[in-house]
Write a structure and sequence with these properties.
The chain is mostly helical. It has one domain (1-40). It has 2 helices and no strands. The longest helix has 17 residues, at 37-53. The chain is globular, with a radius of gyration of 11 Å. 9% of the residues are buried.
């Protein structure tokens, strides 16, 4: 299972979301995040949900 350690490694579609999460301190280490594709998809769903809930 592929894990992404840095923003540079994250797929293009997820980079803005992950960058925003990095800027808000959601990851303890920006160089060892370790999200998988499944985790990125789940994070995207939750992000969309929270944006629509506002």
């Amino acid at each position: 299972m592929k894990k992404y350690n840095t923003l540079h490694e994250v797929p293009t579609w997820a980079k803005p979301m992950v960058k925003d999460m990095q800027d808000k301190g959601c990851f303890s280490d920006k160089n060892k995040m370790d999200p998988t594709d499944d985790m990125l998809r789940a994070m995207a769903l939750v992000t969309r949900y929270l944006e629509k809930k506002k």
